[in-house]
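Hi P.,

Sorry for the delay on this. The queue was packed all week, but I finally got your sequence through. Input first:
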Amino acid sequence: MQRHDEPFARDADLAWEPTGEGVARKILTYGERAMMVRVRFEAGAVGPAHSHPHVQCSLVESGRFDVTISGRTERLGPGDSFLVPPDAVHGVTALEAGVLVDVFTPMREDFVGR
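Then the structure:
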C-alpha cells in the first residue's frame, strides 16, 4: 500500500485492486488533505450511484463515460473533467474501456483501511 504522505509514487510500484465487476483502482498518492486515484473500467462497467462527504474532481484520461451527478447526466471523453460536491449522488457508466483519475479532498480513509 502507498505510504502516507510519501511525496512520490511510481506507477509500476503500485497495484490495481478490484472494486467491482470490470472496475479496478490504483491509489497513486495521498496525504491527510488530498488523495489521487486512477480507476480503470472495462467497456460496459458501472461505477454505481453513491455519495461521500469528500469533494471529488475527476479527469477522463481515456475512454468515454456517461457521468451522472445529482440526476444530471453528461457524456464525457478524454480530457473532459467533472466535479462532485460533498454528499452529491453520482455514478458512471463506461461506454468503452477507459480510465478516470480522481482527486479527493480530504483523502478517502476508507480506501486505505484506516
